[in-house]
């Protein structure tokens, strides 16, 4: 698990993004939530990336325990679809970050002395 540890700053940044996208609502029940939950638990190989996290209330976070989001939600397809939508959004963030790195590299190359 130590291989994908995140620091307090990264954790706060993740929480800010989660709270905003989820509008402060638990991904599992819709009540106000303020904890980070792993979609796939660390015990089963889930990592600490934003892609593997949702906002959850304490009751759901503790109730879900070592279940995956899919196991915990069962037939609640609406909630599962929201989680998939969140992951699509995060994929977009990664694509945007990649794009910015590539743009910076191109501009650095064009400014390099000949
Ligand atoms: Zn909840």
Automatic annotation (TrEMBL):
Pfam families: HNH_4 (PF13395). Residues 15-62 form the HNH nuclease domain. The keyword Hydrolase applies. The keyword Nuclease applies. Keywords: Endonuclease, Hydrolase, Nuclease. GO terms for molecular function: endonuclease activity. This is HNH endonuclease. It comes from Roseomonas acroporae.
């Amino acid at each position: 698990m130590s291989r994908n540890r995140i620091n307090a700053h990264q954790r706060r940044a993740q929480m800010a993004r989660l709270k905003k996208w989820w509008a402060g609502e638990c991904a599992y029940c819709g009540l106000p939530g303020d904890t980070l939950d792993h979609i796939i638990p660390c015990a089963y190989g889930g990592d600490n990336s934003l892609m593997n996290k949702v906002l959850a209330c304490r009751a759901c976070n503790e109730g879900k325990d070592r279940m995956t989001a899919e196991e915990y939600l069962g037939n609640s397809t609406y909630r599962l679809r929201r989680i998939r939508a969140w992951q699509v959004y995060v994929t977009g963030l990664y694509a945007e970050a990649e794009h910015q790195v590539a743009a910076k590299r191109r501009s650095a190359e064009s400014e390099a002395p000949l």
